[in-house]
Amino acid sequence: MPTPPDLEWALRLEEVSRSFRIGERVVKAVDQVTASATSGAITGLIGPDGAGKTTLMRLIAGLLRPDSGHITLFDIDVGKNPMAAQARLGYMPQRFGLYDELSVQENLDLYADLQGVPIALRAERYAELLHMTGLGPFTARMAGHLSGGMKQKLGLACTLVHPPELLLLDEPTVGVDPVSRRELWHIIEDLTHSTQMTVLFSTSYLDEAERCDSVWLIHEGQLLGSGPPASFTAEMTGRSFLASSALSRRRLQGRLAQTPGMIDALIQGDGVRVTTTVAVPPNASIVAPDIPDLSFLPVPPRFEDSFVARLRTRVSEPQSASPALSPTEKPIPSSKTADIISVEHLTRRFGEFVAVNDVSFRIAKGEIFGLLGANGAGKSTTFRMLCGLLPASSGSLQVAGFDLRTAAAQARERIGYMAQKFSLYGDLSVYQNLRFFSSAYRLSGKTQKTRIDWAVEEFGLASMLKDTARDLPLGYKQRLALACALMHEPDILFLDEPTSGVDPLARRDFWHRINQLAESGVTILVTTHFMEEAEYCDRLIIMAQGNVLSTGEPEAIKAAARTPENPDPRMEDAFISIVEATSTRIPAQ
Amino acid sequence: MNSLSLQRIRGLLRKEFLQIWRDPSALAIAFVLPAALLLLFGYGVSLDARKVDLALVVQTPSPLASSFTSQFADSPYFISHPYSSIQAAEHDMTARTVKGIVWLPSDFSRRARSRGQAPIAVIVNGVDANNARLIEGYVQQVWGTWLTAQIRHSPPLLSVQTLIRFNPSVNSRNYLVPGLIAVIMTLTGALLTALVIAREWERGTMEALIVTRVYIHEILLAKLVPYFVLGMGGMAASVALAVGLFEVPLRGSFWVLATASALFMLTALGMGLLISSFARNQFVAGQIAIIVTFLPAFILSGFVFDIHSMPDMVQFVTHIVAARYLVAILQSVFLAGDVWSVILPNGAALLVMAVIFLGLARAMARKRLD
For the domain A365-380+410-582, what is the CATH code? Predict the structure, then answer.
């Protein structure tokens, strides 16, 4: 392996910009980014979906040319000489770049041929890579038949077949189960320690920032900050607290989110995690004298706090305005009310394959209930059956008092559904989407007008009624999709992966609305592979390979994973310990 | 080509052949699509009139009239239906149960005997203009034969000897099938490369591929070679079908056929590569391939519609349709033999086309996404 030149940095970006024309608009995907990545370290390129991470990766890989600015890889100007740069870097695109019809071994052979790995060195290199990725027993399997986690590792192995000096990984952990995610991190950490490889790792999971040596935080094409993750959290020292009171955590969160001096309020465990504008502990009797037994306990800052703080200080953020919904003072529906959804021994087979296996749960009115699991765990199949879109193979399903086997249509009228990726009509305007969805729910005349006006008012859409849905920022797409799902005032709201990839403020805004809806008696069922989101649920089930591994309140699930080494496990730790304990992991067929 | 690595080319070729072998969609385009189109057109489309339903209206039966009408009963081209009134026959033509009417009015025999003018009316349905013209021609031929027989005691002063060269049975299939092969090969050649590369873009494999040390011309070459082999296989299968199943004669030499097809296949694959440089999903690539290669080849290649009877402007446009050169070569190689005055200029045109399209494809290909 060639020794890297004696440089502090392996990669340097100087005022790099790149814009794209989408219809009549010009989108600045990367806007004046200046940053450098230290040689031999892991640099995290962190930002929500649409922040410009992939464009930046492609610019560095020489796949796109910058409109202005310079990208220097070691001593190569990437814009001028992409071939020279490509000889020294390895790039794993988002879908891993594997050929499904080729076996694990054939994929490796192809990339070894393309990267000019001498035949004599291959056996040793393959052995190393197969050992590292644990793919040794599967060399004859077609790549198309590997699980998501195994594909990700094979993609990595192909990228590493000729050891690059700079490794570019574009969102390698998206859609991959937490166990594989953790394994990938171990592999990459080992690599940088043993070979001095420089790694640029992009992700929208903010919790991955803390595993990087250094972080570039980007949002809307701009670099919000760069440096070691500790430098981000350092500026938040003394500003994070866990609030608890006799009030329900959801109502407490609603109150604290609107209290001056608070930049963030998030449900965590039994309490509400808040972040303040200054490093002074909030005084309970001044902040909210009417809330009984309110107390604030200092907690260590997280990377996400710093992101939220930086976003709040950017004035050009209309979506940071707090939602117009005011906390309702209606009595909270008691959990003893009748179950609105009841699922008994639900099973769904596709031929030999059991997608959902003997799943049972009950959801009370006004509850937020989560289905947590990695891709392929059976969440979406369960969801489709609950919506009456897919018949069950066996078991019973009751939604809002209707048996889905006999009265799917009636049940559906009571359900609002927000699909993954927000199934809006991209070519229609915001207003046309609202009109269409309200008509689809058979609203007309005055009622329809009233509901559209309500949606426009409630979701702050007035200024963009004529904009086409496709061109909306992700956070607004999400709002519009929620508005469309609520047009017919459903009793039950189904949310399929509602916030994956949206920025933290949009996610907070969204969950604030969901909490308000739950408070007003709407039952919410949400699927997510996003472990943090599970915290916001009243109860949840954890699914893997079609089976329910665990059911209960988030606190109880986390408590079960408590060990002497890890006294305060996060949801992800709990998830991994449950998956590892309950099943011997079966590779996908 | 500044640099070629055998190792890289071999790796890419192996990958491509494995994919073709394991994912049969490329094989389907190369073999099933041509076979299906050939069968469909070969059996379904014919420009010949056969077994045409013809109404024979004889208002006053007589030996003379029946000697005339019996000519139709013996003809392979007509199924004759006797009528006694012209109104009934016209009604049936309106209902399209008969395609034409031969009407011998009531005074036919009398006027013929009195050496006057004996009128025979022929009424054809002009909606189907092609069929109408054919019926008209056939009826005149039948009439001519009959007339000659009637006046055989006084031989005619001059006679016309018709000699049909190259396609003596005047079977339109013999002339359509070779042209059809050219049209089908246009489609499969362009589809093969356009779809296969679009699929690599869709699945994100192209992005991973172009970041390696591979050169863009190596990628193009590794796409060209396997799909050339496949396309030529499809071509051979089509020729075998034409000769074996449709009994189209093959009078020219194999090498002329193979060389012309190879040049044409390179042109079609070049068009596909060119399409793939801007169409990055399979749906769009397929649509473009059909609209810019198949349709012009179908309409403007001279396969059905004679180029010389097109307006000058349209004739001019046909020069950029590569299929027209192959249609000309194939029609002559199949039906007439190695007619060098046809093969050489058209072959040269195909060579120019292949160079242009492959050159354009090379010039447009980028190791970049923008």
Answer: 3.40.50.300
